[in-house]
Amino acid sequence: MAGVHQPPNAPALVSFPDTDALAHSLAAFILKAQKDSLDKKGRFTIALSGGSLPKMLKGLVDNPSVKWDKWQVFYVDERVVPLDHPDSNHLACTTHLFSKVPIPAENIHPIDPTLLNDLEELSDAYEKDLIREFAQKDAARFPIFDLILLGMGPDGHTASLFPGHELLTEEDRWVAYLDDSPKPPPKRITFTYPVINHALRVVFVAAGKEKVDTLSNILDHPEAGLPAARVKPAHPGQLYWFVDDAAAEKVQYPRTPFKL
Ligand SMILES: O=C1O[C@H](COP(=O)(O)O)[C@@H](O)[C@H](O)[C@H]1O
């Protein structure tokens, strides 16, 4: 999919009438990415966000086409709380997806709950987990995920990369930590831009009228530099926005019809 009259790797904006239609097409998109990845290398690497994203994955439940044993799942960001804490992104993904599907536990990569009191150790350990999965297999400078699913907060943050934060310029680390997130809880770890921007496919999922101004800012005025506007996957990576019509109401950027 590519936007009409847009450069080949310009973001593709796909808008759906409601979140059910969005979730349905998102599942179809994920399955296509899974197939392409399994055909090429026999494994599928995906990174998930928290917030409103996990609920949008319902199209994967009871779906016989998902090859759960081939998935390796990481978290784009995680709040530094116990894994069963209501703020945990892992708990949200478990509640809405993993508890309902036959994915092997070892294919899911949560943060190490024994390291919650040491942010540096915690983010280092998560980076090492990524290195075990990627660097040893692909020998690349940064991990190359088959698919990264992102959310966008009403302030334009994505992952745990917040407007004006020093982590927006981090270029070396794969996983960074912060203890001053403006959105609670304050302590988090997050993928950095180099990791996000090396993925083969990055999909933002954003729905609801509370995101209408931010979505228009990001797509129509990317030069404003909000964190979500800084996601620009390197060639051959492609960026997609899956949104609902409520969130897209003010966006001038051209829509692309959904097509696999
Ligand atoms: O705090 C977070 O917020 C973002 C956006 O959440 P949403 O509820 O507005 O979709 C989310 O993508 C991120 O994973 C999470 O930690």
Automatic annotation (TrEMBL):
Domain of life: Eukaryota
EC number: 3.1.1.31
Pathway: Carbohydrate degradation; pentose phosphate pathway; D-ribulose 5-phosphate from D-glucose 6-phosphate (oxidative stage): step 2/3
Domain Glucosamine/galactosamine-6-phosphate isomerase positions: 17-241
Record carries keyword Ribonucleoprotein: no
Keywords assigned: Hydrolase
Catalyzed reactions per annotation: 6-phospho-D-glucono-1,5-lactone + H2O = 6-phospho-D-gluconate + H(+)
Family: Belongs to the glucosamine/galactosamine-6-phosphate isomerase family. 6-phosphogluconolactonase subfamily.
Name under which the protein is recorded: 6-phosphogluconolactonase
